[in-house]
Automatic annotation (TrEMBL):
N-terminal domain location: 13-137
Protein name (database record): Antirestriction protein ArdC
Residue ranges of domain Polyvalent protein metallopeptidase in the record: 161-286
Organism superkingdom: Bacteria
GO-annotated molecular function: single-stranded DNA binding
Matching Pfam families: ArdcN (PF08401), MPTase-PolyVal (PF18818)
Lineage: Bacteria, Pseudomonadati, Pseudomonadota, Alphaproteobacteria, Hyphomicrobiales
Organism in which the protein naturally occurs: Ancylobacter dichloromethanicus
Record InterPro entries: Antirestriction_ArdC, ArdC_N, MPTase-PolyVal
Length: 310
């Protein structure tokens, strides 16, 4: 399908169902190898970016486009609508199928604005959100466009960046024992010793996951962390921080690999997604909120460094 479907006339519920079904299908395909749609190779073009605005997609759209890229084997995360590719002088090839993403129309006293992070969770009084579906095509589906070559930082630099990133979060990180976890009563992240991990990338992927849980403390983002294993609340908190870890690892150019110990979560994730078509939107929205909080901490740490050097 190559017609210009810049804005699809679909109801919000239809969009929720279509996006959720796409993600469920991606999870089911990879379940045998524990490969989820948010696992990626950490390359510099992992994060999906819009070709026209040059801005990264956000929230559930990241997950939707990761799933699409994984299913179709796209090497680059560069996307645009049919019209956006045309305006660049490129042409979507005949017979190519587009991929659904979600934008939100926000109506309030000041008129309408549009956002694309799939975040319907931040609703407030005097504001209404309307979901609209858009179809986008990957750069691999068009003629007349060549993706730019992206520089690859040496792994030692990427690891050093990850170390600085985690240190700037201001979370108490302790080492010892055999399990990685966040301990709410002590407000600390407990990690096995660095040498217990396959490599530094695996260590930081797990550390970011646990720091994701720590972000939910009352004095941080104040999420409900009381869910017990097996409950829908527990499953969605795990899904949220898995997405968060994948988002930040993509920013840091670190790969996120399947972990067999996640096998126990897959069935519960699928159960929640099948029973609530908005669940993955909520999880992705919360993951984006955590990512924004973590990135804001980097800016704060940088300001402190500048003041300290003055």
């Amino acid at each position: 399908m190559t017609t210009d479907t810049n804005s699809q006339a679909q109801t919000g519920n239809d969009i929720y169902e279509r996006v959720t079904n796409q993600i469920i299908a991606a999870i089911e395909v990879g379940a045998g190898e524990y490969r989820m749609p948010w696992h990626h190779d950490g390359s510099a073009i992992t994060t999906p970016v819009n070709i026209a605005s040059r801005k990264a997609y956000r929230g559930v759209n990241i997950l939707s486009l990761w799933a699409a890229a994984q299913a179709s084997g796209y090497a680059a995360g560069i996307w645009g609508t049919y019209r956006q590719w045309q305006e660049l002088g490129a042409q979507v090839r005949k017979g190519e199928r587009g991929h659904l993403i979600v934008f939100w129309k926000i109506s309030d006293r000041n008129g309408e604005a549009e956002r694309q992070d799939g975040d319907a969770d931040q609703d407030a009084a005097a504001r209404r959100l309307f979901a609209r579906g858009y179809t986008v095509f990957n750069c691999a589906q068009v003629d007349g466009y060549t993706p730019p070559e992206m520089p690859v930082l040496p792994e030692v630099e990427r690891i050093a960046h990850a170390e600085r990133f985690c240190a700037a979060l201001g979370i108490d990180i302790r080492h010892g024992g055999s399990q990685a976890c966040y301990i709410p009563s002590k407000d600390c992240v407990q990690m096995p010793e660095f040498a217990c991990f396959r490599d530094a990338v695996a260590y930081y992927a797990v550390l970011l996951h646990e720091c994701g849980h720590a972000s939910g403390a009352k004095h941080r983002l104040d999420r409900d962390l009381s869910g017990r294993f097996g409950s829908a609340a527990y499953a969605m908190e795990e899904c949220t921080v898995e997405l968060l870890s994948a988002m930040i690892c993509a920013d840091l150019n670190l790969s996120v690999e399947p972990r067999p110990d996640h096998a126990r979560y897959i069935a519960s994730w699928l159960e929640v997604l099948r029973s609530d078509k908005r669940a993955i939107f909520t999880a992705a929205s919360k993951a984006q909120e955590i990512a924004d909080w973590m990135n804001a901490r980097q800016a704060n740490a940088h300001r402190h460094e500048v003041r300290g050097a003055a």
